[in-house]
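Please, structure for the following, as tokens.
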Amino acid sequence: MTQVTKSTMIGELLQIDENIAPILLNIGMHCLGCPSSQMETIEEAAMVHGIEADALVKEINDFLAKDLAAN
């Protein structure tokens, strides 16, 4: 199972599973298509948007686990 960390890049994250985009959009990360956002880590993006990085990583990993179980 794929798991992400705070150091996972946003661009890499979206390549792992493009269905993660709504999670990021819902917390205010509306710049997903911006080239500079693709090179940010989850931790950096969370900091810019006032989100707790560990909580975001947990939410994403929980989503990936559920998505894997569904397939």
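The chain has a mean pLDDT of 88. The two ends are 12 Å apart (CA to CA).
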